[in-house]
Design brief:
This protein has 129 residues and is mainly alpha-helical. Among the domains are: 46 residues, no CATH class; 40 residues, no CATH class. It is rod-shaped and about 120 Å long.
Length: 129
Amino acid sequence: MRFQGSTMNDKDDPQKSLDFARRQLKGGIDDLDADTREKLLQLRHRAMESSLEGENRFPDWATLPIIAFVTAVIFISLVYIKPNPAPPINEFYEDWEILLANDPLEFYENLEFLQKWKEESIAREKESN
């Protein structure tokens, strides 16, 4: 590609250099010489072929270390990060007894009174003995 019309004075003035570059870039493919056109077509074909091949971004050797790292992270998180402990078994069974019971709602509303009454009756039995 030949740049015609540029002189030593044009290189000194940045505005003239920019204008010259703009004129050259705005020109069509017909304004290019045959060698430049051929090189651009080869580059274009190479770019199209590589995009169609779908080259892998990772090298072949990188997959094994990545898999090993992910496996190590999962193992460490399973060993050191423990979930919240389950509720004690006694409370679990008490809750199920309440949920499965067919007692009326009034029974649970008066539960505090019944517990107090039971404690008093136990205390009376101890006094009488």
